[in-house]
Design a protein that fits this description.
Layout: E1 33-41, E2 60-71, E3 77-81, E4 87-90, E5 98-103, E6 107-115, E7 122-123, E8 130-132, E9 147-155, E10 160-165, E11 167-168, E12 170-178, E13 188-198, E14 201-203, E15 208-210, E16 213-221, E17 227-232, E18 235-248, E19 255-265, E20 270-280, E21 285-290, E22 297-298, E23 311-314, H1 316-323, E24 326-328, E25 333-334, E26 341-343, E27 348-352, E28 357-360, E29 366-368, E30 371-375, E31 379-382, E32 391-395, E33 399-403, E34 407-410, E35 415-419, E36 421-431, E37 434-441, E38 443-447, E39 451-454, E40 461-463, E41 473-475, E42 479-481, E43 503-510, E44 513-520, H2 527-534, E45 540-543, E46 546-549, E47 558-562, E48 568-572, E49 576-577, E50 582-586, E51 589-592, E52 600-601, E53 605-609, E54 612-614, E55 623-627, E56 630-632, E57 641-642, E58 648-652, E59 655-658, E60 663-666, E61 674-679, E62 682-685, E63 695-698, E64 704-709, E65 712-714, E66 727-731, E67 737-741, E68 744-745
Parallel strand pairs: 1-10, 12-21, 20-22, 21-23, 24-27, 25-28, 26-29, 27-30, 28-31, 29-32, 30-33, 31-34, 32-35, 33-38, 34-39, 35-40, 38-41, 39-42, 45-47, 46-48, 47-50, 48-51, 49-52, 50-53, 51-54, 53-55, 54-56, 55-58, 56-59, 57-60, 58-61, 59-62, 60-63, 61-64, 62-65, 63-66, 64-67
Antiparallel strand pairs: 1-5, 2-3, 2-4, 2-6, 6-9, 7-8, 8-14, 9-11, 12-18, 13-16, 13-19, 14-15, 17-18, 19-20, 36-37, 42-44, 43-44, 67-68
Amino acid sequence: MNKNLFKSLALAAVAVIAGACAKEQITSGDGETVEMTFNVDVPEATITTKGLSDAAQVDELVFQAFLRGAKDQNRHYIYTPVPELTQTVPVVDKKATVKVSLVKGQTYSFAFWAQTKGTGYYDTSDLRAVKMNTDIVKANDPKMDAFYGYNDYKSVKASYSEHVTLLRALAQVNFGAKTLDRSDALQARESSVTLSKVPDTFHPFWKTSEGEGSITYANNIVISDEKLVIADKTGNAEYDYLATAYVFANKEKSILIDASATITLSNGKTTEVAVPNAPIQVNYRTNILGDLLNFDGVWNISIDEEFKGGDWIYDPVGSELKKGAAVTLTEDYSAFKSSGVVIPMNVVSSLDLNGYTFKNEKGTALDVRGSLTINGSGKVLCEGPVGEANAAVFVQDGGKVVINDGYYYSKNGNSCIYVQGGKVTGHTITIGGEVKPLYYGGGIVEINGGVFEAEASKFVLNQNDYIENESCFIVKGGIFVGFNPAEVNECHGKVKSFVADGYKAVETTYEGKQAWKVEAIPPVTTQEAFNSAIATANATVVLAAGTYDMPSTVGDGVSIIGTDASTSVLTLNSAVAWHGVNATFKNITVKYTNANYIGIQHAESIKYIGCVIEGQPFSYANNAVFEKCTFNQTSSNAYNIWTYGSKEITFNNCVFNCAGKGALVYKEGGTDWYKATFNGCKFIASAPVAGKAAIEIDSSLNPYEVYINNCTSAGFDNGSKSGNSLWNNKKGDSTNLKVFVDGVPQTL
């Protein structure tokens, strides 16, 4: 096979010369004829010639003349052939001369078609519409390449000579695999191609094609002595040809087709690659590239219909991840674009590194806006230039990433794992006199394993500086080189740790470098062990399933975490005194009796997150917060909670299930104003209690401010004084009570 076959942008010149005498044609009054000579060239590389063949197979030229008339209903000129001027001449050493006798004073149009003689691929009996003989076409045959030209509406006044530049009449579709040392079993030997929604007729005068059918290119030996060379900003990349087909298209605008190839390997097995919505355009090549021999299935791409350019590169790994597939690497992969592989919103994909490397030398490796789970040993590398959007894994638009294994690294000061800001919260922060908007987190990254490293170690795990009060990382495992995920400073000091509840970071080394390993905190399983663990200041204590008594002695700054809120249970049958203590409960059921004054007394602050509160607790902490807690009360004689001794108490997104009495805002004696806030809470009564609203307020002995925002009540009676079922000022008046509902002050 010709060694120069398919050279990108390299087409040799063809000069075609032929001679003939007109037999009979429409004449002017005196019948005088003149000679016209055409020098027909297939040009060298130009910006408009982006095919692959060097035209070496072309060895004949078809020439036809026409008389141009009026326009048809489609505003196309009507061309009437002058059959006696039709010529088919050989091309010898790419040089010839076309010489024809024409009637002086007549106006002609001329069409040219250069092809390989004897193939029968094209019906050239009428060059107004060249028909492809689709029943005999073959894959991988450079003899299908053909060129056209035209010279429209030429008035003949005297003998003259003219050059005509031919253009390729076809698009080329290539399937290519990365050039590697393959085993014989993975050598592609033969292939066939099927193209759907494609034209079978080309109109040289209009530079458009016609038809929308299916063409199957018969099985043929693959091109093995050539490489498909793709140029990009970093240089040339070589691929092995797997399958090639020529097809008619339009010159000015691409069209979208479906393309598939069936490839037969040396071991006799076949693999199929199918690509819907692939763009084709006359004189351009569409390249479907990647690890095609190791992927079976249908690959999806989407492309704007205004596609322009010489080469469209198709990426099977990226395409599969984009459409929501489970991809397992079978060799090292490098992203084609600086933006990396994007997982779109609402798409759920998985990637098994399988011991190989997934990298981008130009920028971000993985841009996750949907959901991606990464498994398997291997590497994910960002080797691009410094830039905020460059990372080994970049998360935005609400994306979620779960990392279970692998090695992750970023060079040049880029983040290893980065989470962008999401929607604006409506809040601002002032830094250096400049007011900045604050954002919700743009995504979540859960890390269960792997090794994480960055050239700039402070950016191993990184989230946008203007995310408000929210950690975007849930770290349950992994090794972090030069970075302690339990000691961070995000959200301008409001997020201190990325480590998940019930886990801890332990200092270690990785390849001689300082590192931290995150591991689970062993849960305590006995009351004695619980009492001992909770006595240590700043301890994080994990409770195994079981029922435990609330200890009376506790260290300041402790966190008590249940393995499951339904099975990790704390009981409080009498009050305990935690003087000045700050403590947090997470994911635990706390059971109180319905007796009065049962609670944790004298504490500075207590926070409950995701807990179940049963019975009737009295809140005593100076500052108390309940986040996403569920209160359960079955007695109509008791409340879900008394706010009692808490000077400031806040309930965020809590559910109050009760038998008619929800929350009681009340304190016995005092002059300082106390504050109770309910945000996004739901109050649900199994039955009403006469005169009791969801939130009962008694400010007769201590003044209160009560803020109720976006809360609902169901099943309650209307309040005895307020007349509504959400809140009721059962005692007190405007001198010692202020109530605001959704920001609006209420009339008492």
